[in-house]
Amino acid sequence: MFQNIEIEFKNMLTKDEYELLLKKFDLSESSRITQENHYFDTKDFALKNKKSALRIRQKGKQYEMTLKQPAKIGLLETTQKITEEEASLAIQVGTLPSGAIEELISKMGIMFANIGYFGSLLTKRAELDYKGGILVLDHSLYLNKEDYELEYEVENEQLGQKIFKELLNQYAIPYRKTENKIQRFYNQKYLENH
């Protein structure tokens, strides 16, 4: 099990803004990696209602299950390495692997056995070191939808926010209140279900 606090700033981009930033930072198609997130929750969105999220991420042949929970600053991420077989069971059958994340979810008062598979989100990601943080450009595809996003991951919240705002201003990109990927995924899933 691994835990860390995630502090990041996000902004939705238009396709043109996304392509401009790829060009300005010289990020070619070959520099992008593809990752797939598989999302899980109960039918009544118990994790979402506690401002938490559960995903299994596949990067190449590596699999990890991550629980994101609110923290004083940013999000507390708890990550558990899992096997390809465990990931496959979770996605195909809805049987999640036991361990530290199961214990944390149980402490939240949520029955681990009630959590099921919601769907996947595929992201083409380009990232680079930028002024003491990591700048990320994402093109995501999910539930017949696609979007573009800029993220800036940092350790110092105040400095990171200042650098992020300067970057948006430099390229005349308006600030847009941006929900995280799982929230956008859930919103789309909810629309499809109603």
Report on this model:
- This protein is of the alpha+beta class.
- It has a single domain, classed as Hypothetical Protein Pfu-838710-001.
- The protein has helices at 15-24, 46-49, 84-92, 100-107, 157-170, 181-193, and strands at residues 2-13, 33-41, 53-59, 62-70, 75-82, 116-130, 133-142, 145-154.
- The protein has an eight-stranded antiparallel beta barrel with strand order 1-5-4-3-2-6-7-8, surrounded by four helices.
- The relative contact order is 0.22.
**In the CATH hierarchy, what is the superfamily?**
Hypothetical Protein Pfu-838710-001
The CATH class label is Mainly Beta
How many helical elements? Answer: 6
Encode the helix/strand succession as letters: EHEHEEEHHEEEHH
Whole-number tally of structural domains: 1
Sheet of most strands: 8 strands, antiparallel, barrel
**Beta content:** 35-45%
The chain-level structural class is: alpha+beta
List keywords for this structure.
about 190 residues; alpha+beta; Hypothetical Protein Pfu-838710-001; eight-stranded antiparallel beta barrel; 6 helices; about 40% strand; globular
Summarize the helices and strands and which ones pair or pack:
Elements: E1 2-13, H1 15-24, E2 33-41, H2 46-49, E3 53-59, E4 62-70, E5 75-82, H3 84-92, H4 100-107, E6 116-130, E7 133-142, E8 145-154, H5 157-170, H6 181-193
Antiparallel strand pairs: 1-5, 1-8, 2-3, 2-6, 3-4, 4-5, 6-7, 7-8
Summed up, what is this model?
The protein has 194 residues and is α+β, with helices and mostly antiparallel strands.
